C-alpha cells in the first residue's frame, strides 16, 4: 500500500492528467473544496470514508487509488480470457527449453571450430619452424 503522501501525490497526478480542478473533483466527490484541497495538499489525513468518493470522482477504483494499480481478483474477465494458465506457462517453458538447446548446439559447433582452428594454427607454426630450420 502506498504511503499517505504517495496517495496524495497520486490523487494530484490523476486530477491533473484529467485536467480537472480541485473544485471539480470536490464537487464530484461531494465534499467541500477546502476539504479536498487539504486532502491533496494539506495536513489533513485522508479518511477512509472519503477514499471511495474521491476514487469515483477521479474515475478509478479505491484499490487503484490506494495501491497505484488494479489488483486482479478471482472471476475477473482478464483471468477468464487468459485460458488455461498452466498450459500457456508450459508452452512458453517448452519454447525456452528448445531455444536453449539450439544455443547449446551452436555453442558446441563454435567450440569445435575453435578447436580445429587451434590445431590448424599449431600445424602452421610447426611447418613454419621446420621451413626455417631447413633454410639454415
Tell me what you see in this structure.
By secondary structure, this protein is an all-alpha fold. It folds into two domains: 4-71, 434 Repressor (Amino-terminal Domain) (Orthogonal Bundle), CATH 1.10.260.40; 83-135. Helix content is 74%, strand content 0%. The protein is built from seven helices and no strands. The chain has helices at 4-17, 22-29, 33-40, 51-58, 62-67, 77-81, 85-135. Helix 2 packs across helix 3 and helix 2 crosses helix 4. The longest helix is centred in the C-terminal third of the chain and has 51 residues, at 85-135.
Q: Summarize the main sheet.
A: none
The CATH topology of the largest domain, please? 434 Repressor (Amino-terminal Domain)
Extended strand count: 0
CATH class descriptor of the largest domain: Mainly Alpha
Q: Would you list the SSEs in sequence order as H and E?
A: HHHHHHH
CATH architectural label of the largest domain: Orthogonal Bundle
Total helical elements: 7
Q: Mind telling me the C-alpha Rg? A: 33 Å
CATH superfamily of the largest domain: lambda repressor-like DNA-binding domains
Determine the mean pLDDT. Answer: 83
What is the straight-line distance between the termini? 84 Å
What low-confidence regions span 5 or more consecutive residues with pLDDT below 50? none
Provide the structure class: mainly alpha
What is shown here, in short?
The chain has 136 residues and is mainly α.
Question: Descriptors for this entry?
Answer:
single chain; 136 residues; mainly alpha; 434 Repressor (Amino-terminal Domain); elongated
Amino acid at each position: 500500500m502506498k504511503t499517505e503522501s504517495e496517495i496524495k501525490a497520486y490523487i494530484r497526478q490523476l486530477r491533473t492528467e484529467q485536467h480537472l480542478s480541485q473544485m471539480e473533483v470536490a464537487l464530484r466527490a461531494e465534499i467541500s473544496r477546502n476539504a479536498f484541497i487539504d486532502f491533496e495538499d494539506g495536513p489533513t489525513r485522508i479518511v477512509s470514508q472519503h477514499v471511495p468518493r474521491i476514487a469515483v470522482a477521479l474515475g478509478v477504483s479505491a484499490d487503484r487509488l490506494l495501491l497505484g494499480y488494479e489488483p486482479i481478483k478471482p472471476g475477473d474477465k482478464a483471468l477468464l480470457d487468459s485460458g488455461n494458465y498452466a498450459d500457456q506457462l508450459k508452452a512458453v517453458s517448452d519454447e525456452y527449453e528448445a531455444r536453449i538447446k539450439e544455443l547449446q548446439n551452436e555453442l558446441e559447433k563454435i567450440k569445435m571450430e575453435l578447436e580445429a582452428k587451434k590445431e590448424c594454427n599449431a600445424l602452421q607454426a610447426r611447418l613454419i619452424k621446420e621451413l626455417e630450420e631447413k633454410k639454415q
